[in-house]
Amino acid sequence: MREVAIVGAAETRFGKSELSYRELAVEAARGALEDAGAEPGQVEALFLGSYSPGTFVHQEHVAPLIASELGLSHIPSTRVENACASGATAFVSGMMAIAAGLYDVVLVVGAEKMTSTPVAETTRILAEAADWENESKVGLTFPGAFALMAQAYLHKYGYGREILDAVAIKNHANALANPYAQFHKAITAEDIANSPMVADPLTLYDCSPISDGAAAILLVAGDAARNFAKPAVRVLGFGQASDSLALYRRPDLTTLPAARQAAQRAYRMAGVSPRDISLAEVHDCFTIAEIIATEDLGFFEPGEGGEAARAGATSRDGQIPVNPSGGLKAKGHPVGATGVGQLVEATFQLRGEAGGRQIDGVELALTHNVGGSGATCVVTILGRAA
Amino acid sequence: MSEYKKPLPKPDPITAPFWESVKAHAMKIQRCNDTGKFFFYPRGLSPFTLSDNVSWEPVSGRGVVHAFTIVYQNRDPAFAEEVPYVVAIVELEEGARLMSTLVDVEPDPEHVRIGMPVEVVYDDVTEEITLPHFRPVRAD
């Protein structure tokens, strides 16, 4: 299998944007090409991660749309959909195509425009990432699915909601230094206590926001990486796994088995272990999801992720910095863009370009992107150029 | 019967026996005859063996709350007027789980707990469709 590297990375600011779906995607894609010092004519294929443009902005068939906007009209272009893991799954498609030797230069874009639809419609569209027939029709909302996990986790390990508070407070604080983040607002436990309950025990401040945004990376074959402007970030390993859409069919609600499988595959491929990782960008669509992720990724034993969050082990200067970008919680969550945005952030960190959120001495960065309530999980491990 | 606004199931040849059983207020779910294990939702093949050696069996309708949440916000207009309501994963005595709502209980975490015994109640929402909900088992 051929080595694959990231030579270009860019993203729009996440949040409510005046730009359209296609304008956001083009801004990120052009940014990634410029970052790499690449010409559009060098791109041999496009993979676009997007969850539901057909319902959000009434536009399907978006891959050739974006390809043609970028002047890439005659290359193969393909949309990839795996709910909130659409972005990372698009990356996996590009990765496999280069590793297999089909192409040397692939553009991967993630994009979503979620604020054009009324909030009621947006939340219904998101609920369609769960098992519609067997969960959503009963009245289970998307926050409700993660609330079930939170109830199970707090009950099993005897925690109170202060562990959830710790995640929200940390990620809002981290986002203060991220110019791409939706929120630049520090929060306190008091703010959380005064915020409305969404699905017990999750309050408004436990939930990631509704966002617009796009992100893009330029992937190239390892031996072609030296032809581009920026130092190459190496893709050392990735893993993808699936599970039932219906949460209730999972034996244990306090772990995402697909995340564990994806992580094991990524660690094995990279030949590294959790203690080697310098920082992680994880899928904190809800605060509980970050705590479970830190256990599924092997940073902490089952049940210890809550205490680790409370004790600051996942803060910028902790044992394993988690979501120095602010995460989905505060950076924002334009669903199709999220997984690509995590790779963009990891690339900035590995190049030492993360500005006020830069972590010292980053050697290995891990990303963790989840679709639905864990039916798709993609874990990727990136390293600095050799 | 007032007009029912929430989304309704559309029984098909594979799922119809379940909906017929709850309409008759005598729930049946499927069992994999290769493993003896019950499963839900209705399917043509066993999720354990992918065999079609499955049969419909009556179940007690009793179980326990495996996990629950109280939904305070659901912007779907069909549910918006119901909040707060309790959604729970119920584990039936026979071992299968399903997602359902709890009724006849305060939507308050002081009144719902993991492990709480519950039993099915049948809600005849239209002429054709009955939905299974669950309620706490009374002490008496």
The protein's oligomeric status is heterodimer
User: Biggest sheet of chain A, in brief?
Assistant: 9 strands, mixed
Give the helix tally of chain A. 13
Quickly give the structural class of chain B. mainly beta
Greatest interface and its participating residue counts: A-B, 35 and 30 residues
Alpha carbon gyration radius of chain A: 19 Å
| Average pLDDT score of chain A | 97
- Report the biggest beta sheet of chain B as strand number plus sense, adding barrel if it closes: 5 strands, antiparallel
Strand order of the largest sheet of chain A: 3-2-4-7-1-8-11-10-9
- CATH H-level superfamily of the largest domain in chain A: Thiolase/Chalcone synthase
Given the structure, what is the number of helices of chain B? 2
User: Segments of chain A where pLDDT lies below 50 for 5+ residues?
Assistant: none
Distance between the first and last residues' Cα of chain B: 31 Å
User: How many discrete domains of chain B?
Assistant: 1
